[in-house]
Amino acid sequence: MTFKRWSVGQTFSLLNRIVPNHGCGCLAMGVALLLSTAHAGAAPARNVILFIGDGMGPAQVQVGQAFLGAPLSFETFPHKSTMTTSSANAPVTDSAAAGTAMAAGRKANNGVISMAIPGSTGEVLTVLEYLQERTHRCAGLVTTAYMTDATPAVFGAHEPVRGNTAQIADDYLSRSRPRILLGGGGQGLSPAAAQAAGYVVVTNRAELLALDPHDATPVSGQFSNGNMPYEWDGYGGLPHLAEMTAVALAALEDRPEGFFLMVEGGRIDHACHINDINRCVPEVLEFSRAVAVATNWAAGRTDTLIVVTADHETGGLKMLQDLGAGTNPVVSWSTTGHTATPVQVFAWGASAALATNVVDNTGIFDFLIAGALLEPLCVGLEEGDTPFGFETRWAGVAGYGYRLERASILAQSDWDTVAEAFAASGPLIWVDTNATANGPFYYRMISLR
């Protein structure tokens, strides 16, 4: 065993290497503890729920609160932060690059769906894939946009161009295979293709609500041909975002290993692109109701992490005057495109205190992985090898002694001691030169002080 120390102040982030192909090639991922020792007693999350308000900057939250006359459901969450959203090739991101940053923890060019562009052009492992493949959690994607749109796609697909909707649909159905896919249909996804892949297909609210949540058959909800309607225009016989969220939770909650669920309010962005406050506000309020469904479901539980954020701000919205509850405020817009305005992060539940460490959208991936996997003793997963051995990265504390232990399965009662060391500075990299190539291995770092 050898290790090296990083200098204080050096950037510390998750090691997230490229996945050339699912099921082959060399996968290397070190899982890092993002919280300081002061938070080391935080419990891990069995269930991870991520809400993304597409285009929902601070002003969109503000106008929703003004109309409601009270804080939105997630504004009362105890842990908060603000993060930047730039892409690899522009200060103003699109949803594909922003989604890739959150889903896979690395910057990508605008238009790229979870691939290393710029870079090797290989696929990058997403939080959905990691939790589903490595920890056997179920997964679900819910959106009011069409299902193959950029934000849901970054979690379960890999494409160099976000417009490759047919390929994105195929990635869902034949590769990542989330248990739940609920959103707009069409755009590369068809009922026939989903049924051929073993999914039950529902196309309206009645069919969705009639599903047996205990039936393990995967579900593809394809509601409308394209984006779902704006709340302002009426939903007719289609389900609202809050209803889709409730059905997804009911279908995923029985999984003993837990689940990962991403829920997107996709049409906030669309309303802001056309500078339409009448359609923006109802989308924000429905998004808030969907979050409330999740928090009510999780009430009393200690095993669930709920994170609410946005991929970017749209429209350059500014609230000029609050006219009181029930009336849209007076606003101004500066663009019909996206802006570089930092967006908010709200967190509730298990490991939610980690939210304060998120300052850039790539930190969402680190946050979700750390919150889901790391026990108080800091458990990490490593598969593959460096030229020198298996490598894991940890947030240590200068002046503390640590013991690194290794096991082949998380449930193993006896962990093998690999080495002990004193941290001269905070972050540590451990390289296990004695590990075989028969991973994956789980590592945990225990403070000896």
Describe this structure in words.
With 449 residues, the chain is α/β, with parallel strands linked by helices. The protein has two domains: 2-33 and 376-447, no CATH class; 47-373, 3-Layer(aba) Sandwich (Alkaline Phosphatase, subunit A). It is 25% helix and 26% strand. It has eleven helices and 24 strands. The protein has helices at 58-68, 95-104, 127-135, 150-156, 165-176, 191-196, 205-209, 241-252, 267-273, 277-298, 362-373, and strands spanning 2-5, 15-16, 18-19, 29-30, 47-53, 79-83, 123-124, 138-146, 180-185, 200-202, 219-225, 259-265, 304-310, 313-314, 318-321, 330-332, 338-339, 343-349, 379-382, 390-395, 401-407, 416-422, 427-432, 441-447. A nine-stranded mixed beta sheet has the order 6-18-13-5-12-8-9-11-10, with helices on both faces. The protein has a four-stranded antiparallel beta sheet with strand order 19-24-21-22, with no helix packed on it. Residues 1-42 and 374-388 have low confidence and may be disordered.
Query: So what's the overall shape?
Result: globular
Distance between the termini: 21 Å
Q: How large is the radius of gyration?
A: 21 Å
Total helices: the number is: 11
CATH class assignment of the largest domain: Alpha Beta
Beta strands, count: 24
